[in-house]
Amino acid sequence: MNNLIIYDFDDTLFPSFSYVMHMIDFNDVEAFNEIDNIMFELLKYSLSIAEVIIISDGDIGWLLEILNHLPKSFKLINDQIEIVSTVNYYSNLFRKNVNEYKLNYILENINIGDYDNIINIGDGKNELFASISINEMFEDKIKHIELIYESSYDEWKYQMLKMKEFIEIMLNTNETFLTFN
Question: pTM score > 0.70 for this model?
């Protein structure tokens, strides 16, 4: 099987809401080690069963700032995973509708027909919009895992630890939509 997993970054791979709300900070070495280990293990697993891409609406400077505090994950991403900031990618093209950036990036840069399974994972409306729109065009070609929007650190951790199970369900059943809500 030729699989692709598309991850969002903020509040999917990284608990951004908890960081922004000061529930965790860069000085919390224990929390950042835990985040790094969880992210690393999930990405390593994902790479064992699929091609992986991270498509974020966050600015690339923000992504790199965060990843600099997650050394294992950063090395893995740097070595094996494409990471894209749609905000930076499309800002040069003067496109106005940020809500369509992920959809546009997927349609313009990923050959959807090359994959047996595509799983789009994220917490926001942009990921859901992309999945729904692609399925309207390509007859349920993309599967979607929706995470809790603005999750707490504990909710984020629970979702990340359950993600392997959710991915396995998507790959081994006819499910096209799973949610943590």
Answer: yes
